[in-house]
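haha ok so turns out i had the wrong file open the whole time. this is the CORRECT one, sorry everyone. sequence first:
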Amino acid sequence: MQGRGATISYRKAVPEDTPACIILRGRTRENAFSVERLAAAGVTLESWQGGISSGTLPGHVGTVGEEIVGYCFGDRATGEIVVLALLPEYEGKGIGKALLGLVVEELRELGFTRLFLGCSPDPRVRSYGFYRHLGWRSTGTVDAANDEVLEYVPT
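then structure:
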């Protein structure tokens, strides 16, 4: 694995990225999901690949060489940011912000005037401050996973 000075490249996700994305999801610092936990939530290799193939799950990946080090996916039907995940050793380099920005822009181009996501309501969790720093605001509601629902109005 390459370290601090590595060059990050960004591209649209393709179905073949799914196995690496599933593995990466279990390696995140906070809110890691194992393959089994993803499957219990209805997210399988087949469902994720199908969403990418059909365009219902638009996303982008960040890579160092051939390795996926982070990704972000949204929901084309609802405007939800479904997931943003990054390997811990690549945190704090602007990769998450860049990936989120790419998906926000793609959803905005699809006509969404409001985007949303579920985020931990705990201020000690990294994502809590991350999204707020980027302009996401609380709706005052929680979703089925007891995550706080944040919204963003792209300009």
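The longest strand covers residues 67-74.
again sry for the mixup
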